[in-house]
Amino acid sequence: MGSPGVHLREITDDNRDAVRALRVRKDQKQFVASVSKSLKEAAKTPEANPWYRAVYRGDEPVGFVMLSWRPPTGPFKGRHFLWRLLIDKRYQRRGIGQEALAQVIDLVRADGATELLTSYSPGDGEPWPFYQKLGFEPTGEIDDGEIVLRLALPAE
């Protein structure tokens, strides 16, 4: 199950450029900001409590994930919010996003969370089918034009 050797790694000076070079498909660009933009957003909004990692398969950086980790304020105050999940176009449809998310879910659950939130902009090529498959459900909330989803994390 899942891709062998998928793991999360901190972003350092050694791998930052390689991670920033990752790209989604053209038809996904409207839904997912680039890694560079994500890192800038993270730096600009410390109040969102950004937490991010590179997604690796073996020694190859293949993606990027960023959460707002229990932000002290804002609409998702105290909750874990999946802010960005990006898998390079060359590595999509191989279960890597799912595997990376499974690892994020383990970390979030270890932090005592009972849910993981995310949101997406509706449109052609939207990521809803991906999230739906993993068990996310719409909360009925709209945040900044995006549909908010929730994955319940029952205690194991």
Index terms:
single chain; 156 residues; alpha+beta; seven-stranded mixed β-sheet; 32% strand; globular
Task: Write the topology of this structure.
Blueprint: E1 6-9, H1 16-20, H2 35-44, E2 50-57, E3 60-69, E4 80-87, H3 96-110, E5 115-120, H4 128-133, E6 137-143, E7 146-152
Parallel strand pairs: 4-5
Antiparallel strand pairs: 1-2, 2-3, 3-4, 5-7, 6-7
Structure description:
With 156 residues, this protein is α+β, with helices and mostly antiparallel strands. It has a single domain (6-152), classed as Gcn5-related N-acetyltransferase (GNAT) (Aminopeptidase), CATH 3.40.630.30. Helices cover 23% and strands 32% of the residues. It contains four helices and seven strands. It has helices at 16-20, 35-44, 96-110, 128-133; strands spanning 6-9, 50-57, 60-69, 80-87, 115-120, 137-143, 146-152. β6 and β7 (146-152) form a beta hairpin. The chain is globular and about 35 Å long. The model has no long low-confidence stretch (mean pLDDT 91). It holds the Pfam family Acetyltransf_1. Keywords: Acyltransferase, Transferase. It comes from Streptomyces thermoalcalitolerans.
